[in-house]
Structures are given as C-alpha cells and as structure tokens.
Amino acid sequence: MKIIPPFLLVLLVSLHLQAQQPNILVIFSDDHTQQTISAYGSKLMQTPHIDRIAREGALFNNVFVTNSICAPSRAVLLTGKYSHVNGLKDNGLNRFFNPDQQQIQKILAQKNYQTAWIGKWHLQTLPNGFDYWKVLPDQGNYFQPDFIGMNKDTTRYNGYVTDLISDFSLEWLNKRDQQKPFFLVVGEKATHRNWMPDPRDLPEFEHLEFPFPENFFDGYDKRQAAANQDMTISKTMLMHDDLKIGVDYNKRGMFGRMNEEQKKVYKDYYDRAQQSYEKIKHDSIEVVKWKYQRYLRDYLATARSMDRNIGRILDYLDSTGLASNTIVIYTSDQGFYMGEHGWFDKRFMYEESLRTPFMMKYPGKIQPGSKVDQMIVNIDFAPTLIDYAGVNVPKDMQGKSFKNLVSNLQPVKDWRKSMYYHYYEYPEPHKVAPHVGIRTEQYKLIRFYGPIDRWELFDIKSDPTEMHNIIESASKQLIASLKSQLMDLAREYKDEEAVQLLMK
Ligand code: SGN
Ligand code: CA
Predict the structure, then answer these.
(1) Is 425 within the bounds of a domain?
(2) Is 69 in the pocket of ligand 1 (CB under 6 A)?
(3) What CATH number did the domain enclosing 478 receive?
(4) Domain count, the chain
(5) What's the gap in Å between 344 CA and the centre of ligand 2?
C-alpha cells in the first residue's frame, strides 16, 4: 500500500472541505422594492440580470423586514437579531451599532471563510471582523464618491458609484486567497434618495409614462398615523433636491461632485423636464402626477445601472467557473413606496415597505425556477448562510435557517405562520409614528404609539392595498386572538418595551 505524504493529506482534506463549503455572495441594495423588479411582475421596468438569480434559483414571495429602515436592517443582516437585541433601533444620532458583538462574518471566518464588505455600509461604527472592507461614508455620493478604506483614509474616486462598487468587488474577488471560500457583501447605494442616475441611463426613461397605483390619492380614512406622516410625493418630495428642477450646477452640494460633461447632460435633460413642468404648474393635481412620473424616471434609472452591474458580477462568476459553487443572493434593506398611498420612503408596516425582494441561487442545491411562499424574516438571513457554510447556528440568533425549506427537505407545515415588526424612528425625517405589529397570512394588526395611540387592523387577503382599517368593525374574538398572538411574539423575541406597551 502506498503511503500518502502528510502534506498531500493536508491538501486533500482542505480541498475536500472547500468543495463542501460554498462561496457566499450577497448583493444588498438600498430601498429597491419588489414593485420595480420584473421577477416580481413589475409593470414599471425589466430587470433581466436580477431576474437571472431567481430564474437560476429561487424567488421568495414573502420576505419581510423587522424594522423597515436602512441601518437597523443592516444590523439585522449581520446579527440575525431584532433591533432591540442587536442595539440598533434607528438611523438617528443616538444610534450605535456595537461592532464587538457576534456577527455573521466573524462566525464564517472561524470556518476558514475569507470575508469582505464593499460599498454602502451605513452603520456609524466601521466594519469589524471582515478580512477586507471598503465602504461609503454614511449615505455616500452617486458621483465621484468617497470610500473609506481599511487604513481609515478617505479617498475620492472618479466614476459613478454603482460602477465603482462593482469594480472594487470584482477586484477583490480577483485578488482574494483562492484557497479559501469567500463571503462577500456588495452594498449598493442604489436606489436610495435622491436618485441621481448615471447620465447614460437617462434617455431610456425620458418619454415613458407609468401607471399610477390605485391608491395614489389616499385620504387616510381611519388611519391617523398614515395621515400624519411627512413622506408624500405631493408635499415632501422636493422639486430641487429630489427632482432636479432649477438646479444651479455651479454651486457646491450634491450636484457639485459631477464633472463638466456630466453636468451638461443633466442640465440638458432636466431643462427639458422643467419645460414640461412649466406647462402644468398651475394645476395642483397635474403637478402631483408630474412629480410621480419624474420620481419614477429617476428611481428606475438608478436601478438600471444596478441591474447592469449585477450582470457584470454574475458574468464574472460564470466565466471564472466560480458560479457552480457560489450561493448568490439579491436582496434589499427594505421595500419602498412607489406612489402607493401617495408616498415615497418606507418605515410603515404596510406591505410595500414591510416586504423586501429576495432571490437566491445555488447550482445543484436549489432547483432553478423554484418559488418560496413561506414567511421569511430578515433575521433568518444570517442563520441560513451560517447553516449553508456547515456551521451550527448560535442559539442566541433569533432567526431560523431556511436551508431545508428551500431545498424541500423540511415539511412546510413546521414553518412560521406570522411575523413580528417593531419600528422606532420618530419624528425625523418623515414623522412616521413608532409601532409594533403582527402579520399573519390573512391579517395585520398594528399598534401605533408615541405621538398617537391607535390600533389598526387590515384583512390583507380582501384588502391588499390596506385602505380599510377594520379595528372598529372586526369581531371581538379576532381582535383578542391577534392581540394575544402579538403579545406572544413580543415575549418570544424578548421585546420588553413592547410587552410593557401592550400590557397597558
Ligand atoms: C435620508 C433621506 C430620507 C430617508 C433616510 C433613511 N433624506 O435622511 O428620505 O428616509 O435617509 O434612509 S435625504 O434627503 O437625505 O435623501 S435609509 O435608507 O438610510 O434608511
Ligand atoms: Ca434603505
């Protein structure tokens, strides 16, 4: 019998381990909502590259977030825990994400993974426990953006943010240690406010007219929190900063980073937009409709660049052969309003911002074209990826791995039938009252607190656009049952503040 030399043995064992450990690539966008993704049947645009992930893997139809806002949602991705447990409840000045706590990248690193976060990060403390990172300061800029590197120096780069984030991601993939599996998060800035498109993506949308959501004009009947917000297209959305009308390109500020050529394309384009505005500006209803069309054109154009850049990353994985052993996920920090209830922004527990897009491919392990309808919550993301990497999920993570669910290995009846929500940030910047709530397959019960004290109940099966608060007309038994389920969830997730509130 031949004796295998020890070095060869070590090599074989490590190769074997590697073959079992998938690479993990998470593309994490900002404010990109299901209504604008063609895999979800969007009427607004086609997103062929994002759709590719769903086509080659699974499309998740019911993925919800715990707290629909950026920094808190990132903290959930990293920790697998609700905001009150990971410590980051809002984007406000008193926010603090403790970087020393347990996080997915640190757990994967213990299992030989090489880890990186590139792009928008948006936690006030810098990344911790990644082998590599290069992040935008705070919200970052669309043109000639700064990035903070691992030496903590800030460098300004020439180019459009979405292209640069992909360039840096591909660069890192190329030079990474090929002996190790990787975990890379690509943090996109798109499609965040104030939606500044790459000049080359302006023409595609210039002459398109988009359908209006059926509840675009909403009187907020019996929904006081919805009436009190400050996130309407009509009043909150700004002609200058958001819709780029009447911009002085010689001034500093958010347009100050553009080069002369970019300014020229913008000026020509938005001058034409202004001319169309001049024609209708005396009619207030026409103005709101005009703002909606302008908003969509800019938002969708930033999504166009992102979709194209995701295509570049997927092509890279295919051409290097990495695709066959790489899990690719596309998701966003939350959903967004595209004119529903007359709004932009997020925060509310209503469907459009409670949901987030999610699709995932893993060749050979996830059947192409699968659909997952069970309720997934973003606390499940970290446990699932840790599970795929072959590591035991830490007991204090509050989410559950859906690995077996997506490969049809777990009976669907064992999965959660309701989810728990808690939003905190008030009053700035959009005056959405804090609330806790439960969403079951048929109902949604919400308790607003702080500036107002109100319950809302919706039958989302018969009223999917959530226009009818039935808290006064629904049966006592139904309300009592939902309230007690809500209390159970608050207790299960150890949300003591909510337990106290709900006892009152
Ligand atoms: C900024 C935006 C808000 C947005 C928050 C949070 N205003 O404050 O509209 O809700 O970010 O967004 S802006 O005029 O500065 O664009 S998040 O995605 O980071 O949560
Ligand atoms: Ca966001």
Answers:
(1) yes
(2) yes
(3) 3.30.1120.10
(4) 3
(5) 12
Q: Are 35 and 303 in contact (CB under 8 A)?
A: no
Residues 281 and 308 in one domain: no
Same domain, 410 and 440: no
Ligand closest in space to the Cα of 334: 2
pTM for the complete prediction?
A: 0.96
Q: With a 6 A CB cut-off, is 242 part of the ligand 1 pocket?
A: no
- Domain at 138, CATH number: 3.40.720.10
The pLDDT of residue 407 is: 84
Please check the confidence at residue 190 and state whether its pLDDT lies above 80. yes
- Cα(69) to centroid(ligand 1), Å: 9
How deeply is 435 buried, as exposed, middle or buried, from its count of CB atoms within 10 A (0-12, 13-18, 19+)?
A: buried
Ligand 1 pocket, residue 188 CB under 6 Å: no
Q: Indicate whether 278 and 315 sit together in one domain.
A: no
- For residues 45 and 156, state if they share a domain: yes
Q: Which protein residue has the closest C-alpha to ligand 1 atom 3? A: 429
pLDDT tens profile 360-418: 999 999 999 999 999 999 999 999 999 999 999 999 999 999 999 998 777 778 899 99
Range of the domain at 261: 199-295
Across residues 79-89, what is the average pLDDT?
Answer: 97
Q: Nearest Cα to 220, choosing from 437, 477, 439, 433?
A: 433
pLDDT for the residue 16: 52
CB 120 near ligand 1, within 6 Å: no
Q: How far apart are CA 435 and CA 55, in angstroms?
A: 36
Is-contact 41 34, C-beta < 8 A?
no
C-alpha–C-alpha distance, residues 448 and 228, integer Å: 12
1 lies in some domain: no
